[in-house]
């Protein structure tokens, strides 16, 4: 009888330990969502929709940065999406309206992106939001939030890294208080599918602000890098799009109206890659991606390689300050897209 009681006691202890362990694992990530936002069909918009429908993520705030569009346009668009989502309680902080050093060239003005623009923002779908950005700026907010929650905050950075770099410069020692960084950016030639999309070697986010990318990647913060390599394992087709918009919600209505990506007017078999959405999904469920640990650095020297990121298994000449990080390069596409559609298409939950 004694042995049986002892076994029962051990069983209770094991069950409690497993329960407590599961509860600890279920604790949501506290996040700052740093974005060069644009309304659908921009990938930042899809990424934010996914994040808002993911209980694994706890929003502390959203910070905006110039990238896909001007700072003003991105801020106006994200405020409007939060109204559509009924999430006006999430504060928004406007950040850097230009890169640290990158001056707009004729090439920048005639290729993708309008990070250099100072034009007034165009009206988002349904009009400008009543919700306003906070008085404090993004850099001040990032510093204060990390200081208030040392070791607890993940920065989910899906645009140029200007805000994050400025925060690190502003407060020495801040890097040691950041829990982790999940970054959509870069392209690593040492892994498959590693070519650039703005120049032969450079990915857009890193190319817009290479100096900021170099500061952040060398900061020593634990980094999960989601580069073009893993984005190119995605293939969002018209079939997936139709599944996404088959239900009727405020999000799917917006996507249906604005997110068709030319399927009606061009090749119906076209597929598009998903970028920021994968970075968000990898924080929600890390098993969706396969990673390799590499030293990664960025070329911030003016010239042919400006903005190009490089990854290698060991330090090489010129990259003596490079840090090791996890670099994503494979994607479980079927599991990812099923999760993405299921979450983005579900009814918007009520929030206080």
Strand % is 15-25%
**Shape label:** globular
Structural class by SSE content = alpha/beta
- Report the average pLDDT across residues: 92
SSE ordering: HEHEHEHHEHEHHEHHHHEEEH
How many helices? The count is 13
Helix content: 25-40%
Strand order of the largest sheet: 3-2-1-4-5-6-9-7-8
Largest sheet: 9 strands, mixed
Please give the number of β-strands.
9
CATH homologous superfamily?
A: Ribonucleoside hydrolase-like
| CATH class wording | Alpha Beta
Which regions are unreliable across 5 or more consecutive residues at pLDDT < 50? 14-24
Characterization of this structure:
The structure is a single chain. This protein has a nine-stranded mixed β-sheet with strand order 3-2-1-4-5-6-9-7-8, sandwiched between helices. The protein starts with a helix and ends in an 8-residue tail after the last helix. The chain has one domain: Alpha-Beta Complex (Inosine-uridine Nucleoside N-ribohydrolase, Chain A). By secondary structure, the protein is of the alpha/beta class. The protein has helices at residues 2-25, 43-52, 71-85, 106-110, 138-148, 162-170, 204-208, 210-217, 228-231, 238-244, 250-258, 276-284, 333-344; strands spanning 29-35, 57-64, 92-94, 153-157, 180-184, 223-226, 289-298, 309-312, 323-331.
């Amino acid at each position: 009888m004694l042995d049986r009681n002892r076994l029962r006691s051990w069983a209770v202890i094991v069950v409690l330990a497993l329960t407590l362990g599961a509860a600890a694992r279920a604790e949501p990530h506290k996040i700052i969502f740093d974005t060069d936002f644009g309304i659908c069909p921009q990938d930042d918009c899809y990424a934010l929709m996914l994040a808002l429908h993911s209980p694994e993520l706890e929003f502390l705030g959203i910070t905006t940065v110039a990238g896909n569009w001007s700072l003003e346009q991105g801020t106006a668009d994200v405020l409007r999406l939060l109204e559509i989502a009924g999430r006006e309680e999430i504060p928004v902080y406007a950040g850097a309206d230009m890169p640290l050093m990158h001056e707009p060239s004729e090439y920048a003005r005639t290729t993708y992106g309008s990070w250099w623009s100072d034009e007034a923002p165009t009206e988002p779908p349904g009009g400008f939001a009543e919700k306003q950005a906070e008085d404090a700026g993004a850099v001040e907010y990032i510093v204060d939030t990390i200081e208030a929650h040392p070791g607890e905050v993940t920065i989910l950075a899906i645009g140029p890294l200007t805000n994050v770099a400025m925060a690190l410069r502003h407060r020495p020692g801040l890097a040691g208080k950041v829990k982790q960084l999940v970054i959509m950016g870069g392209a690593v030639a040492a892994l498959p599918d590693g070519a650039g999309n703005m120049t032969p070697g450079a990915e857009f986010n890193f190319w817009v602000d290479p100096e900021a990318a170099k500061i952040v990647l060398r900061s020593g913060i634990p980094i999960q890098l989601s580069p073009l390599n893993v984005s190119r394992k995605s293939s969002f087709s018209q079939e997936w799009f139709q599944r996404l918009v088959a239900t009727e919600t405020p999000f799917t209505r917006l996507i249906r109206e604005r997110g068709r990506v030319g399927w009606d007017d061009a090749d119906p078999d076209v597929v598009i890659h998903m970028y920021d959405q994968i970075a968000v999904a990898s924080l929600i469920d890390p098993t969706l991606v396969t990673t390799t640990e590499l030293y990664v650095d960025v070329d911030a020297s003016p010239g042919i390689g400006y903005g190009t990121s490089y990854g290698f298994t060991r330090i090489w000449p010129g990259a003596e300050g490079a840090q090791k990080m996890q670099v994503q390069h494979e994607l479980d596409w079927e599991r990812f897209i099923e999760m993405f559609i299921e979450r983005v298409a579900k009814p918007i939950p009520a929030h206080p």
